[in-house]
Amino acid sequence: QPRVRLSTGPQQKHRTFYEFRTYCIRPDQNAAFLKLTNEKIHLRTAHSELIGYWSVEYGGLNQVFHIWKYDSYSQRAGVRASLAQDPSWISEYISKAIPMLMSQDNEVTYLVPWSRLQEPPQEGGVYELASFQMRPGGPAVWGDAFQAAVTSHDAPGHGKLVGAFHSECGRLNRVHALWWFQSADQRAEVRHKAHTDARVVAAVRNCVVHLDSQENKLLFPCSFSPLK
Question: What pTM does this model have?
Answer without folding.
Answer: 0.91
